[in-house]
Amino acid sequence: MKLKTLTIKIQKKLAWVTINRPKKLNALNSQTLTELHHALVALEEENKVRVVVLKGAGDTAFVAGADIRELADLTPTAGAALAQQGNQKVFDFIEHYNKPVIAAVNGYALGGGLELAMACHLRVFANTAKVGMPETSLGLIPGYGGTQRLPQLVGRGRAMELLLTGDMIDAQRAYEIGLANMICPPAALKSKVEDLAAAIVKNAPQAQQQLLAAVCAGFDPQTDGYAAESESFGACFGTDNFVQGTQAFLHKRKPKF
Ligand code: COA
Question: What pTM value is reported for the model?
Fold first, then answer.
């Protein structure tokens, strides 16, 4: 698929996926969501890629939300279908991805933009970033998992405050409430993400795949997270990574994953 609204750059074991509609502050239209899905599917199968990073083009925005122009004419049925498809193809897809996904939040992350960052496994914020959930100011509510993932990340009370007021908070506040894993000056965002990715890729990818599945299982109301963890724990014993990791320890050398 020819990408019009995304760029992808693979550097060492990291794939940088940049949402590239800077004139519209990288707002998510249906084209971007389709392209994101295709890119994520391709990168999931790319063995040399160990971590995927999402960022926005330019200095102003990560993603300023769903494309409001596209939303403006939707019927209730079409609105529900849009949310369902977007969740399946992008937001839930990222949450259940088989390798870690990091959001590099380089500016505004609003509405669907913050939902995209929240679907990722980790979030690194530039200290200039501003985030919020302004949907009710448009007569809407979040449709890409925001009512669920925000309370999971920051607690119900703080989530209610952000959702009901629609007010933006700065990066420092996002860090204080657990929405950002770490913050840094904008010029250091790339290296901060690379350092985080390096700390991840030194460990076993097959174990991390099981780990991501086990953590996700605990947030799925249909699944017993503890049972899923036992199963994932067992699955690790059959992997090359387990042999590599344990033998390296026993022979007092570093594992090579
Ligand atoms: N959907 C569609 N277009 C958007 C957009 C969105 N979510 N967010 C920004 N844009 C567009 C603007 O319409 C504008 O396009 P134009 O130049 O063709 O008029 C362009 O991006 C720049 O935005 P602008 O509003 O002029 O920039 P600003 O610096 O004055 O304000 C924001 C920045 C982020 C505060 C403001 O753009 C905004 O509030 N965006 C909507 C955020 C939102 O409600 N998101 C949730 C959607 S569910």
Answer: 0.98
